[in-house]
Amino acid sequence: MQGSLTQWFGLEGRVALVTGAGRGLGAGYASALAAAGAFVVCVGRRIDSLEKTVAQIHRDGGRATAFPADVTRPALMREIIDRVVKDYGSLDILVNNAGTEIAKGIQEVAEKDYDTIMGTNLKGLYFTAQAAANHMIRRRRGKIINIGSLASQIGIAGSTVYSASKGGVLQFTRALAVELAPYNIQVNAIGPGYFRTEMTEPFFQDPEHRQWIEQRIPMGRVGTAADLAATVVFLAGPGADYITGQIIYVDGGWLAS
Ligand code: NDP
After folding, report:
1. For a pocket test of ligand 1, which of 41, 94, 197, 203 has the largest count of ligand atoms closer than 8 A to its C-beta?
2. Is pLDDT above 90 for 143?
3. Which sequence positions are flagged as catalytic?
4. 0.90 exceeded by the pTM?
């Protein structure tokens, strides 16, 4: 068998859309995909942070643009995805990353909290995938990468709604993978362990919680966005064309222990 790194991992000529690309792990996915050659459409609610990600990609020699949008609005996401296809010729890769957490015990969770978490992590992800699939089915090609979590697999106290949403992400990934397999569209998920971002900052601010996290990770350190870069590039690339319906946990060994 002959091959080259570009043949397996190169994303030259591909158009990728990353939700929640303005900060945190999403900004890392966007940069990684751009470094592999993709043109990256960065989506999120805050244009100032999206522009920072785009500027960083440009400084690194990559290509990217920003579209402000709230993923909880399916009609708007569909409009944006249609526009991306019209303006840039295709949508080859979707990284469904936008997510949120409001950590509370079940007695404290209000309906509003439930709707915010589910609306972003599951409904937003679902309808963004639906809009992307609409184009990918026609082209008989595409990669959808959903962002799960350790909470796709294990129960985390104080995170019941988040865990329900991320368990849903995993099952959605599997069902969609089966449904879209005949169209040569691969649907997979990444399950990050603990990474320090705006979303997890409250956990790290609490010394007890922080110590629990750090002691629980067999590798002895919290992850960084760079630890996720190769996984997203791999799943988005031609080398993963026969992988679908899977979740790759990037967790420093947490789930193995
Ligand atoms: P951050 O809070 O740092 O970033 C969340 C991103 O999502 C931001 O860019 C935010 O942008 C965007 N976002 C949130 N709500 C919406 C919305 N309604 N519409 C559009 N964009 C939205 O979180 P992380 O980077 O930590 O998390 C990213 C993903 O990774 C999430 O799905 C999270 O569940 C998952 N994850 C994170 C882990 C971690 O340890 N950090 C562990 C496991 C999974 P803006 O506010 O501008 O809209």
Report:
1. 197
2. yes
3. 162
4. yes
